[in-house]
Design goal:
77% helix, two-stranded antiparallel ribbon
């Protein structure tokens, strides 16, 4: 009897211990998933990238042109008319995507021409100067990037000459695409993107294996901070690198 009583007490104690453990597990709140800590400077860079560069450029240009209140009002009216026409066009289910983009391009072109007609000769001159300034700025930025590559990758004179020539050729290719009236705005963007991608792949082939490895490492580190996730450089089966 004593043995039976002892076994009963032991079994009861074990049951109570398991029951208490289960109760604690139920009452214990679920562990919160860890939220990754993002450095402030990274958040700032992302916010800067999210800012619409095109809108910022237009704002600065408007300030530079010193638009009158009447011009601003007319610009706003033209913008709304174009927006309404595009929205109405998007409701048409009987047109193809290409037809939609063709007509959208025409609407935006007409809006640009209307805005241009409202500007004075002095304001048009300022726009021409600004465009030339942007070209000079882009050329300067290219030379700065090239000088960094010359220093970091130890490029030889032939490689430098080839890269400069390719850059000039790319500018001409992009200008030709922009001036091609047979393409709508969407098609132009796609072709410009593809042109840049192809030229980047050709540039990588100009480098030696060691230089490509260093460039890949530099670019990968830069993309983490400055470029969208969709822009990547990947290594293909033959060991070379290409834009993805």
């Amino acid at each position: 009897m004593k043995k039976i009583a002892i076994l009963f007490l032991f079994a009861t104690a074990l049951y109570n211990q398991q029951a208490n453990a289960q109760e604690k597990t139920k009452s214990k709140p679920a562990a919160k998933s860890k939220i990754p800590v993002v450095k402030k400077e990274v958040l700032v860079k992302k916010e800067e990238k999210a800012c619409c560069k095109k809108s910022d450029y237009k704002r600065r240009m408007a300030e530079n042109l010193a638009l009158t209140d009447d011009q601003k009002a007319n610009f706003k009216k033209i913008k709304k008319e174009a927006k309404d026409r595009i929205e109405e066009l998007s409701k048409n289910q009987n047109i193809t995507l290409k037809e939609f983009n063709d007509k959208k391009t025409m609407i935006l072109k007409e809006a640009r021409e209307k805005r241009k007609s409202l500007l004075t000769s002095e304001q048009l001159g300022k726009i021409a100067v600004a465009k030339d300034g942007n070209k000079q700025k882009n050329l300067k930025e290219f030379e700065e990037r090239l000088n960094k590559l010359i220093s970091d990758l130890k490029l030889n004179d032939e490689q430098v000459a080839q890269l400069r020539g390719m850059h000039t050729k790319q500018i001409e290719q992009i200008e030709a695409i922009k001036n091609n009236n047979q393409l709508n705005d969407f098609e132009k963007k796609l072709q410009i993107k593809e042109t840049r991608k192809q030229n980047q792949e050709i540039k990588l082939k100009l480098l030696t294996e060691d230089q490509r490895g260093k460039f890949f490492k530099m670019r990968k580190e830069n993309l983490k901070v400055n470029q969208p996730a969709s822009s990547q450089i990947i290594q293909v089966n033959d060991g070379s690198y290409k834009m993805n």
